[in-house]
Amino acid sequence: MRSFLKKLGPGLLFAGAAIGVSHLVQSTRAGADFGFGLIWALLLVNLFKYPFFQYGPKYALATGESLLDGYKKLGKWVLVLYFILSFATMFTIQTAVTIVTAGLAVKLFGITDNLVLWSTVITIICLLILTIGKYKLLDNLMKFVIIALALSTIIAVVVAISGSSDSYSLQQVLPKNSVEIAFLIAFMGWMPAPFDISIWHSLWAIEKKNADKSYTPKNSLLDFNVGYIGTVVLGVCFVSLGALVMYNSGETFDNRAGVFAEQLIKLYTNNLGDSSALFITIAAFTTMFSTTITTLDGSPRAMAHASKLLAGKLIKHSFIFWMMVLVIGTIAIFVFFLSEMALLIQIATILSFITAPFYAIVNYRLITSKHTPKEFQPGISMKVLSILGIIFLIFFSGWYLTTI
């Protein structure tokens, strides 16, 4: 087991970044509002996004450089457009994951229910960990976090199913009105994660390779698949919990982070018993904390590298600079726009989905271009899946834009 875990790294960082708002918030809400009716959307979007996430670490291990370096080779405009899109969404993404973490901290520690204070403290702690421990600490931490969450969630679902005498419909549904369609697009936008993470993954893969020379393309694929399949399984689990416990119960999830955290913990304790509340709260908090810290590492790391490529030279302390920019911007949103958090999260998730075709097309062009060695380019089946994925993403983005 120790040998197996040593081979893992960036794939679990991917899982840590992905299993956050998209799972704990959006997936449980999907189950609570639609039962099992949106399982089709979860599975389809994970299937069609798979190639484009895989191309991140694959390109990195094949060439020794990140996707951002590849974007520049495709054309400087691609890198500039990425920079603009990333800057437009990085603050809201960081704020969204941190506010949920803060809500769980209120439930776990109970010192104060001031979400702004908790969010600020959590952000500063993450900043210190990344500044002092850097990538190595992040890599080691995630292995324990993901295992703990996976076990607690799967056990909760099994107990919920075995303890329920009600019958549940597996009939799939297609949202009809504008509110339901907006939720569907938001649900798929961050499921399993925004495409930005494919770029972070390529940067993490290079860091892993620098730290561990035995980290090969074969190990990288195993690492990625473990993380990706894990996010899909847990996504289904969170939808199931929402469907089994809250669907048709008359109760709906609250938009306030503190109240939502209370309801989330109740999902578990209703099935595992009140004695499990502390363990479950710790697992959920640790998971969201891991998402907070991985996004605080990923966005600045990508922006720092993009800045270096655009400037044509190494910018001293660029990573620290972009972390501070993200920290200050995130805290500013907490202080001045906390009442608009639900709207900000909705905007961020929808923006992530309607820009997904851009990332999909660019990642596919890069992995099939002359910049990627032939032996690392995708086979026929993966190319077909990629083209279908691009069509899928364009169709749903167009559907949303024409129905809002």
Folded structure, characterized:
79% of the residues lie in helices and 0% in strands. α9 runs antiparallel to α17 and α13 packs across α14. It has 404 residues and is mainly alpha-helical. It is built from 17 helices and no strands. It has one domain: Amino acid/polyamine transporter I (Up-down Bundle). The radius of gyration is 20 Å and the shape is globular. The longest helix is centred in the last third of the chain and has 35 residues.
Helix amount: over 70%
CATH level-4 homologous superfamily: Amino acid/polyamine transporter I
Low-confidence stretches: none
For the sheet with most strands, the description reads: none
What is the β-strand count?
0
Label the structural class: mainly alpha
Broad CATH class: Mainly Alpha
Q: What fold name stands as the CATH topology?
A: Amino acid/polyamine transporter I
Strand content: under 5%
Distance between the termini: 50 Å
CATH architecture assignment name: Up-down Bundle
The helix-strand sequence is HHHHHHHHHHHHHHHHH
Shape summary: globular
Mean pLDDT metric: 82
Total number of distinct structural domains? 1
Annotation field: number of helices? 17
Q: Taking Cα atoms only, what radius of gyration do you get, to the nearest Å?
A: 20 Å
